Amino acid sequence: MNRISWLAVPDEQGAHERVRKLWRKAEDNLGFVPNVFRAQALNGEQFLAWWSYFNLLVNKEGHLPAAERELLAVVVSGINRCVYCAVSHGAALRALGGEPEKADMVAVNWRHADLSVREAALCAYAEKLTRMPEAMTEADLAPLREAGLSDEQILEAVQVIGMFNMTNRVSSALGFRPNAEYHALARPLTRTGPG
């Protein structure tokens, strides 16, 4: 089996009880346990605290549509070159939007993707906040407001961007490897051979 982290990964017996419960729930819902759940389980309480906030920002009903939150996740992860998050959240973006080409382009260079004005404003904001947080000014909010985002949506976007910048660093620093299932998720079947 390929290593999923450069650190030790606990097995069922070594994992925190609530972490094991989360693994079972993921297995039931997804058909597999995300490697990030296994890799971060080494410090169970910290993982559960991270998961609570991550789950609230990414998976629960929020101010932004789920597809926009995943768009931000993919843009930030692509900029940070975080393999785990770009692959896993690229899969989620494909599943939500049904546009594999768009999700793949966003992961590499969002400017090449066919985006709405609102999506492009979110991507530009995410890129600047990820690359140059010290350069942010109030004027950076204007394109988001012009694209129709409320203050609540802007705050949520900032929180999602911040979460992925942190998560990208943890994943990249420890060599987290994405599950094979993510690579095939929400991709249409293609013909093989010439033509």
TrEMBL record:
Keywords: Oxidoreductase, Peroxidase. The keyword Oxidoreductase applies. This is Peroxidase-related enzyme. GO terms for molecular function: peroxidase activity. The keyword Repressor does not apply. Residues 46-127 form the Carboxymuconolactone decarboxylase-like domain. InterPro entries: AhpD-like, AhpD_core, CMD-like, Uncharacterised_peroxidase-rel.
